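QUALITY CONTROL LOG
STEP: pairwise intake check
CHECKER ROLE: data steward
CRITERIA: each record must contain a sequence immediately followed by its structure tokens, with no blank fields

ENTRY 1 OF 2
RESULT FIELD BELOW
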Amino acid sequence: MYIRDVMTTNVVTISSDTSLADARRIMDAHHIRRIPVVDKRKLVGVVNKEALDRAGPSQLTTFSVHELSYLMSKITVKQVMTKDPVTISPDATVEEGVALAQSHKVGALLVVEDGCLIGIATTNDFFYKLLNPILGIGQPGARIAIRKCPDISNIKKALDVMAKLGTGVVNCFTMANPDTGEKDFVFHLTTEDPSALIAELRNHGYEVEQRAR
């Protein structure tokens, strides 16, 4: 899966000469915490609510209300924006995107093509469009974990048991057990009651547990 598959394309933007007051109003109206800054179709920066707060009333407490309003209407985002935001190509993989966001400790990546902003990929995009389908969030069924399933031969035997019982699978993945470090094979099943499958797998020597969804 690529960044273009998960990014949001209808991105709200502002120009660098937008006042801090207007920038905050736009963020509040759209319920967003960051907004890209675009001049003549080119991405020039990004500003978030934290930057507005640092430049806002809490830092200007010696001024009157009228003076604060005046300053907030005159100071522009150009003076507080981050001028080198973290960007990514729409053709980068989601794995590359997640690694990039983690390495820079940011909650959003600005998607740029030929110098122009074409989208934004946020933590929510990664969760709702990638992680939720993998974990089967919102889908019916049950989840089981087969412990100590380190290689293909073990996995194949488990799948043979499932095929014999006609058990449907929504998705599956392997992950290291936090206690042992050994790999578990986790299944999201279509059935709501996996007790028969669990019993059969245990008869074949597997250590199985049902996990909450």
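ENTRY 2 OF 2
RESULT FIELD BELOW
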Amino acid sequence: IWAHEIRVFALSVVALTVAGVVATKEFLLCVVGGIYKASARPFQVADRIEILKFRGDVIDHNLFTTTLFEVGPEHTVHQYTGRTIVLPNSVFLTNPLFNETYNRRFVLHTFTVPFKRTDDWRLAEKLLLESAFQEVGPYLAEAKQYMSHLERTQGLDAPVMDPRANIHFPDPERIDLVMRVPVPAQRKGRMEQLILRGFVERWERKKAP
């Protein structure tokens, strides 16, 4: 007698359950993402991270969201934009995360200086390295010691920490000098600007008649 009513009631319960799951899906994913962050610890406050197209310094994170102080607007720029980004923790479950300051104290930073094929790239390389060694010299020994410590304690193959310049040909008429320098983790943009300004001053003096 009650078969039809029971079937209707069961279907209603299933429909309500499905609706509840759909309605709370994002909320549940944020909670799971928060648990993942707490257990895996891929970053902490003050780290500079990038996920999807969002990049910035972590200023707060909890079970549901992560707040970044935006850095940009481009990937090669290291200046604050004045905006904050609030990310739902669900994004950390399915997207790769880049932590630019994982080592906390010193990192290897790369940047590119373009030239025409007709420019004296050998002189430019020499002047760039001079400027780089001048700026990183005061803490180069400490950076090497720190990387050696990571090599011993974390089983890493420590890279060479001295400033380096590599040649890249993006097209037949252009030469890029790709600089790699050790810098304090929180001063990448500042150190890059100091090196570039020192290089430009040297370049102009050499090219002056």
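INTAKE CHECK: passed for both entries
DESCRIPTIVE NOTE, ENTRY 2: The two ends are 106 Å apart (CA to CA).
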